[in-house]
Amino acid sequence: MSGSGWSRSRFLGGTAAARRCELLRAFVDPSAHALALPVFVGCSRHTWGMRRRRTDQPLVEAARRAGVDDPRILEAMAAVPRERFVPPDDRKRATDDRPISIGQGQTTSQPSLIAAMLDALELTDSDKVLEIGTGFGYQTALLACLVAEVHSIERHEGLALQAKRNLDVCGFDRVNVVAGDGTRGLPEHAPFDAMVIAAAAERVPDGLVEQLVEGGRLIAPVGASGMQAAILYRAERGQLVAVRELMGVRFVPLVAGDEPPA
User: Catalytic: 109?
Assistant: First the structure.
């Protein structure tokens, strides 16, 4: 499927993104699961009462238990309300450290696993990152808190549109979400400092390494169905060199070209 994109010309800088996450952390209505943020943050203003709270503290604790201690990642997880990035019927389970089905045979990943994968990438606030597998946009929002520029590809156009809506209502309106074939990357926006792949393949597609800067980092679930491992790679002289294996994982398959989606 050929890609179509949104918000291609404007991106959220790292400092602004961190400030937006700081504001997100404080203003969430836990009963209605709706944001009530000042207009300048870019989110919708709501008329019902506000309660101040840290939105996803259980997920922060889950990330810590998984060995994540980067304060920037923990602050992003505290700030981004996961309930805005799951189907409405599942919002009560949003603070559980579990995958949640989002339709089209896809899931939004376990938050502690997302945190561990982002932690392994050693992201900086000046990085430009490509995410493959947008889902409902939760990991995309975390990335927008951490780096200067985020591009994300989702094979299922309906999910891409929903992710864009979720990101927009939370103020992440400058993330570039594209519906298309993730195995091809986004060469028109390359090179990238880092990539995170949220779907599994027996090997990383060859064309992606060409879109990384020298020394760029890539993390992906690799292996046959049911026997996958999250592996961190580094780009060296046009090749991907495995740095370390993080953990055993289970992801939906990365679908290429004209193969039918799972």
Answer: yes
